[in-house]
Inverse folding.
């Protein structure tokens, strides 16, 4: 009876041991793969440059001597939220085009990983800004990004106006140069017409005088 039971246990133990080894190997491989992916993602170049407005806000927030007034901190937080609005717009505009390029194989997986990491970072940034805003005033976190969006739009309008005004001087200069060239060409044509008419009058006069001499 015992040899038979031992054989049964051995036959049952072999597949169990195989499954244990297989599961263990897959677990180790999965952990190593995730760590490698995380290391590769950490080594990728950030999608956005350093967040200067956030760094300024955090520096002011933790300054103790002298302590920064709340009004200045609120203004710095609003500037931080405004920069976040710009980054959200860039993320939304780039996502659809980037997905299409990735499906076609026109861009590499590294670029997509950089983009996904940027999405997660901006989500965390938005949550942090909302928490900071609510710490200053109740429910400010619900409206701070609306105010930031208006500021971003106003900034964009001012930049466009500045760009138009900077081009206006160049346009005026070009039109003045063009006007001078047209006037110069027009005066040249007038001079040529006068010269041509004078030559024709002289030719008619000579011909007339020649006829008179011939009659005499």
């Amino acid at each position: 009876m015992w040899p038979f039971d031992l054989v049964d246990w051995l036959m049952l133990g072999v597949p169990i041991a195989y499954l244990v080894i297989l599961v263990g190997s897959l677990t180790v491989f999965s952990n190593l793969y995730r760590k490698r992916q995380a290391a590769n993602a950490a080594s990728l170049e950030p999608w956005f440059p350093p967040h200067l407005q956030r760094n300024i806000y955090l520096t002011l927030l933790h300054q103790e001597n002298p302590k920064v007034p709340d009004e200045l901190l609120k203004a710095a937080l609003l500037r931080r939220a405004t920069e976040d609005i710009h980054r959200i717009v860039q993320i939304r505009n780039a996502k659809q085009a980037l997905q299409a390029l990735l499906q076609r194989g026109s861009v590499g997986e590294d670029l997509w990983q950089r983009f996904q990491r940027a999405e997660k970072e901006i989500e965390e940034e938005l949550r942090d800004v909302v928490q900071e805003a609510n710490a200053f005033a109740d429910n400010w976190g619900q409206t701070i990004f609306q105010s930031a969006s208006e500021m971003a739009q106003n900034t964009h309008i001012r930049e466009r106006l500045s760009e138009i005004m900077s081009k206006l001087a160049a346009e005026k200069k070009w039109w003045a140069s063009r006007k001078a060239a047209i006037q110069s060409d027009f005066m040249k044509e007038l001079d040529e017409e006068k010269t041509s008419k004078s030559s024709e009058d002289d030719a008619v006069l000579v011909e007339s005088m020649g006829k008179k001499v011939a009659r005499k």
About this structure: Helices lie at 2-43, 52-61, 70-104, 109-136, 144-215. The longest helix spans residues 144-215.
